[in-house]
Design brief:
The protein is built from four helices and three strands. By secondary structure, it is mainly α. The protein has two domains: 104 residues, no CATH class; 34 residues.
Length: 181
């Protein structure tokens, strides 16, 4: 068994819980198997984590756009004979074709199922959500409260520094590992 399942080899019908169980089983095999230098393996896994997170973040923007276009295409009524095709109907032509991973023919047969703001692929669900953020900085009361909170946090930090120097302040020591790449 390799340390990581290659892309496209996880069963696409496997649940999130089962994926976590599979990862835990693999981790236990690595730890208990004695075949790996665990510290080196941990550092290498952190490299993969950064690598995968970077790919996911890069894909998120494009795939979000693709999901929105797919939803719009699905929800758009087909033109009746003799009607003009809307000007934005070519949105999908600018997107790459939906292709299977590594030429997996089983995956190629599975089509996306689109229902309003949900797109389903191979036992996975992609939700299109909207998020509203507000800019409160124009409000004087909000600014006053924010400044007050910042002052209280600074006062709290000062108090903590004082308490650290007192002999009777309880302290708990813990260790952890930090990997800097």
């Amino acid at each position: 068994m390799g340390l990581i399942q290659p892309i496209g080899t996880l069963d696409r019908t496997i649940s999130k819980t089962a994926i976590i169980k599979l990862a835990n089983d693999h981790a236990n095999q690595i730890v208990e198997g004695g075949n790996y230098d665990l510290l080196k393996t941990y550092v290498e896994m952190k490299r993969y984590e950064l690598y995968i997170k970077t790919i996911i973040n890069k894909l998120k923007t494009s795939s979000t756009y693709q999901a929105r276009v797919m939803r719009e295409e699905d929800q758009r009524l087909a033109p009746l004979p003799g009607q003009e095709i809307p000007a934005d109907a070519e949105l999908m032509t600018n997107l790459p074709a939906l292709t299977p991973l590594d030429g997996d023919s089983d995956y190629a047969d599975q089509h996306a199922i689109i229902r309003q703001n949900t797109i389903q692929y191979a036992s996975a669900s992609v939700q299109i959500t909207k998020r509203i953020t507000y800019d409160f900085t124009q409000d004087a009361e909000w600014n006053r409260l924010t400044d007050e909170i910042a002052a209280l946090k600074a006062e709290l930090k000062k108090r903590e520094e004082y308490l650290k120097k007192q002999a009777d302040t309880p302290a708990v020591t813990s260790e952890s590992i930090a990997v800097r790449l």
